[in-house]
Queue: 2 jobs
Job 1
Amino acid sequence: MKQTIVIKIGGNASTQLPQTFFAQLEKWWLQGKRILIVHGGGPQISQWSQKLNLNVQKIDGIRVTDPATLDVTKAVLLGLVQPKLCQSIADAGLPVVGLNAADNKLLQGEYLDHDKYGEVGKITQINKEWLHQQLRDEIGILAPLAQTKDGQWLNVNADLAAAKIAIELEAESLVLLTDVPGVLNSGKLVPLLSESVADQLYQKNIIKSGMMPKIKASFTALKNGVSQTFITNDLGRPGTQFQ
Ligand SMILES: Nc1ncnc2c1ncn2[C@@H]1O[C@H](COP(=O)(O)OP(=O)(O)O)[C@@H](O)[C@H]1O
Ligand SMILES: CC(=O)N[C@@H](CCC(=O)OP(=O)(O)O)C(=O)O
């Protein structure tokens, strides 16, 4: 569906959305684009885990998730982050619907590597027809959680979830909205990034932590039919575009 735009909003970015974000969203909506927002909430999950004396550990940007942390993840994403985002988009006068994995088996998944990450998964199947229908009338706000065929919930990194969903929806673009202007090298924005240069930046430890799943997500989407992928902190600016 070439009229679809998938925007991933990181947990930090979701707390400081500028007016330009809502203006661009409205512009795309009025142009007839279908818009799906996949939201993160990593910093909020870490904060609540700490309050509850749970261990916070990430490996290359992926949270190690034990059953108690999975409960916190669900509660924070579906109880705090998502309603707040829905509220701010509704306040901007745009139609919005909050969505999660359990809505008509929207996101099915399987474990990534149970021994390494615990209750963490990757998305394997999407209820596309139903999702397309929802996006005809409303902007969708979707949490990065999936369910196995047996109904077990899985925590999914939001960048990787957004890429998989963008591919499945045949989106025209994927925008990863975060708290930095794009990929930085010695403090300078890299406007265009190829996979070989990204590998070099990774080898030099310039691309690390939370940027790693974003790079993987961007190239995966690009190689699988999404025409354009960006990492930015402003919907009005392309930040880093992938090539
Ligand atoms: N080369 C890089 N350029 C920019 N940011 C980087 C880079 N390498 C690591 N990062 C880190 O990645 C962070 C963004 O990832 P993350 O904190 O997971 O954000 P989000 O919550 O938006 O997913 C940046 O704030 C920065 O600390
Ligand atoms: C498995 C995994 O890492 N899940 C992520 C889901 C939220 C997320 O990705 O949020 P940000 O985009 O704000 O980082 C987590 O628990 O932090």
Job 2
Amino acid sequence: MIPRRLTRFKPTPPAAAQSPALVTDPAEAALQLIIARHNTSPRRLIEPGPNEAELQALWEAAAAAPDHGQLTPWRFVCVPAHRRSDLGDAFAQALVERDPGASLEQIEAARDKANRAPLLILAVADLRPAEPDIAAAERLVSLGCAIQNLLLTAQAMGYGSGLTSGQAMGSKALRRLFGLVDGEEAICFINVGTVSREKPPRTRPEPTRFVRSL
Ligand SMILES: Cc1cc2nc3c(=O)[nH]c(=O)nc-3n(C[C@H](O)[C@H](O)[C@H](O)COP(=O)(O)O)c2cc1C
């Protein structure tokens, strides 16, 4: 069942998210949505991406993340189509920063990573001193929850998503482009779009691997 708030969208669920029968139990629907989410490579995310109303719903979902101290210790920066070449330049510079001997082919491959998913968002953690003094780990958990809220909402709308990071995240070039200040960290890019080709999702760990009783 699609939550009532989201019925204004016209979701076209990817094959993995389609269920043969309508799920009417909200707990079961939530579980099925969560289980169906999986990482899709930005190479397989094509147009169309979320429209403006859908994008606003993604921000609303992010804003619902748990947030100890209510610091909003994170921010998101969209990279619109007309700024992708600037991001490509930053990826290229980041590569040269860490490997001055990188080949032209490697530099072009780095640059090309900026041109994939229709919706591309940088997730930034704010770890600057603040009142109340909430630990960095807690702030990162809050950002992780905000990202997951966003991913699940995109999934409910019928889009695929994937996270990307890598060594460019800490580079001077990327920090400069996004105007990051001391204490802000670029954590990952969020890629959202229509899935061109589904891949089987990974096998998830059994709860016995990560649950114990004291
Ligand atoms: C902060 C963060 C950064 C990530 N960066 C990458 C990345 O650079 N490349 C990649 O292929 N996957 C990346 N991922 C996605 C994980 O590889 C993916 O979530 C994992 O393989 C589990 O698969 P699933 O999401 O389909 O369950 C990242 C995930 C997180 C949480």
